[in-house]
Every structure is written in C-alpha cells, then in structure tokens.
Amino acid sequence: MSDATPLPGEPVALAHASRLINHGPTVLVATAHGGRRNVMAAAWSMPVEFTPPRVAVVIDKSTYTRELAAAAGAFALGIPGRALADLTFTVGSCSGREGDKFARYGIEAVPGPVLGQPLLAGCVAWLECRLIPEPHTEAAYDTCFAEVLWAAADPRVFRDGRWSFRDDNTELHTLHHLGAGAFAWPGQAIQANRLTG
Ligand SMILES: Cc1cc2nc3c(=O)[nH]c(=O)nc-3n(C[C@H](O)[C@H](O)[C@H](O)COP(=O)(O)O)c2cc1C
User: Fold this and answer.
1) In whole angstroms, what separates CA 60 from the centre of its chain?
2) Which of 28, 57, 60 to probe ligand 1 with, by most ligand atoms within 8 A of CB?
3) Is residue 27 within 8 Å of 151, Cβ to Cβ?
4) For 18-28, what is the mean pLDDT?
5) 165 touches ligand 1 (CB under 6 Å)
6) CA distances from 20 to 79, 104, 125, 151 (A)
7) Are 57 and 77 in contact (CB under 8 A)?
8) Cα of 102 vs its chain's centroid, Å
C-alpha cells in the first residue's frame, strides 16, 4: 500500500453512503492494524442509521477479520463487482490466519483517507468505517456496528447517488450470495412509479 496511490472511484456524499449497500450486495471486509492485514467476504450487511450513516455487518467472532477489526477499531468495506466473484468466494473460504490473502491472491489496496483501512482495487464501491464500541453486543453477537466516515464508488456504475446497472456494465454489477459460491447479480432494474389515488 502506498500513500502516493490515488484513491479509487469518486467520492460519494455520506448522505448517500447507505445506498451503496441498501440492495444487499456481498461485501469484502478489509482490515489492517499494526502491520497485519486481512480481507473476508460478508453477505450480511445493511444500513442501520441515516445521520451519521451507520452500518451493521455480521463478522463471525472466530474470524481473523474480527480480531483485526477489533484491534484497529475500524475496517473498510469493498463492494465487489461480478468480475471479482472468484476472489470474493475465495477470500470467504479461507482464513488470513493461514497466510496473507493479499499476497497469496495478488490483491492490491490503498489506505483509506480517514482511517487508513485497505481500499481494495477492482471493487466498485468503498466505505471506510469506524467500529462503534458495544461491549455487550460484541460479546454476545457476531454483528458489528460501525459509522461510515468516507465513501466512494466507480462512476461507471454508481453516479449522482444511484446505482446504474445496465447491459453495458455487467462486469461491474454487484454480487448477491445465494450460498456455496453461487451468486446472482442485478441484471435487470425497473423504475417504479407512485400510484395515483
Ligand atoms: C460469499 C460469502 C459470504 C459470507 N458472508 C459472511 C458473513 O456475512 N458473515 C461472516 O461472518 N462470514 C461470512 N462468510 C464467511 C467468511 O468470509 C469466512 O469465515 C472467512 O474465511 C473468514 O476469514 P478470516 O478468518 O480471514 O477473517 C462468507 C463467505 C462467503 C464465501
């Protein structure tokens, strides 16, 4: 990771950050602390507060990611597009305790601008998040709550606060986990209109 490397994507206003995960994409939870780094897949994340924007992510207590995120007090979410399906499944199927997944799978990242957490190359959106200390919740549950401090997205697929999933950008469509490495992606979108009455 190098400070000289430009940040990925274009900034997303924090007021729109919840829209990045509103539709339930699988995310990559990336963490770095004290010279250690890691990344895992998480299908379970959601926005939980508007202002400031807060998210909940289920990070199993037994994972290396959870250990590092707790030590860092932070993590970054990367939202992978279809092109990263194999990588997403892979980093969700092995532990960083067995070796550095970044080196093993050629994952590149730059430090986030606020917390220095890894922003993964090749994703279509990124959120830098600070863990909200919740001693009871942390002890009892796998769910972690965090405040989003910075967000960005690839303007080819997220612009003006909205996702734009089209036939000409399918490699950038987000992944929705069906189980056991099978994913669906949002191939078709419709604009609903309010009914009159
Ligand atoms: C597509 C996918 C989605 C997953 N979603 C979650 C999740 O929401 N929460 C979770 O704790 N683990 C989830 N996992 C499992 C973790 O990614 C897995 O335990 C990982 O190996 C942990 O790595 P670590 O020990 O390096 O942190 C998922 C795995 C895959 C493949």
Assistant:
1) 16
2) 60
3) no
4) 98
5) no
6) 8, 28, 7, 9
7) yes
8) 16
For the record, the structure tokens of 77 come out as 């979410």
User: Is 118 near ligand 1, meaning CB less than 6 Å away?
Assistant: no
- Supply the DSSP symbol for 142: S
Cβ-Cβ contacts under 8 Å for 162 (sequence gap 6 or more): 19
Phi, psi of 127, deg, nearest 5: -135, 130
Calculate mean pLDDT across residues 158-164.
96
Tell me the pTM: 0.97
CA-proximal residue: ligand 1, atom 18 (nearest): 92
The structure tokens listed for 146 are: 């965090």
Q: Which of 33, 95, 85 is nearest to 59 (CA)?
A: 95
pLDDT for residue 2 is more than 50 = no
Atom of ligand 1 nearest to the CA of 94: 21
Give the pLDDT band (50/70/90) at residue 1: very low
Instruction: Encode 26-61: b = buried (16+ Cβ within 10 Å), e = exposed.
Output: bbbbbbbbeeebbbbbbbebebeeeeebbbbbebee
